[in-house]
Every structure is written in C-alpha cells, then in structure tokens.
C-alpha cells in the first residue's frame, strides 16, 4: 500500500508531514487532501490569518503528486441604500 505525505502551506507557514499515511491510492489521497483543505480553510481563512492555504501531497520518493489550494478573497461593496 503506498504512503502519502500531506504538507500544509498556510500563508508563510509551512507544516511538513513527517509520518504520512498508507492509503489505497491517489484517489483516496486526493479526497483526504480536499477534505483537509476545506476544514482548515473554514477554521483559518475567515479569521484573516491567511488568504490562501494549500495541502501538498507527495509520495515516499518526495515527488509531489497533487496540490489542493483554497483561496479566499472578500471585497466589500458600497451599501446601495446608503445616502450619497
């Protein structure tokens, strides 16, 4: 069973995965990386800690096999009911 490592890049912060997980294949790793990125984005992006985060997945040879990136951009629009 192949081992995959899930490194996290959050703003300027990099958190390497030293242990990895044995999974049934790349499709399973992709689902896990996508869920992890969504969960982390829900927790950190609205707080303004970072505007983007990524989960980079690599194999035991260190070859990056996929990257999941989540970005958040918020732009306030003028209140259409406000007086000029």
Notes on the structure:
The chain has one helix at 26-44; strands at 3-10, 13-15, 21-22, 52-58, 64-71. It is of the alpha+beta class. The chain starts with a strand and ends in a 13-residue tail after the last strand. The relative contact order is 0.24. The radius of gyration is 17 Å and the shape is elongated. The protein is built from one helix and five strands. The protein is 23% helix and 33% strand.
Summarize the structure.
Strands 1, 2, 3, 4 and 5 form a 5-stranded antiparallel β-sheet that branches. The chain has one helix at 26-44; strands spanning 3-10, 13-15, 21-22, 52-58, 64-71.
Rg estimate, integer Å: 17 Å
Helix content: 10-25%
Helices and strands, in N-to-C order?
Answer: EEEHEE
Structural class: alpha+beta
The coarse overall form would be elongated
Number of strands: 5
- Main sheet makeup: 5 strands, antiparallel
The overall pLDDT average reads 88
* Number of helices, counting only DSSP H or I runs of 4 residues or more: 1
End-to-end Cα distance, whole Å, is 65 Å
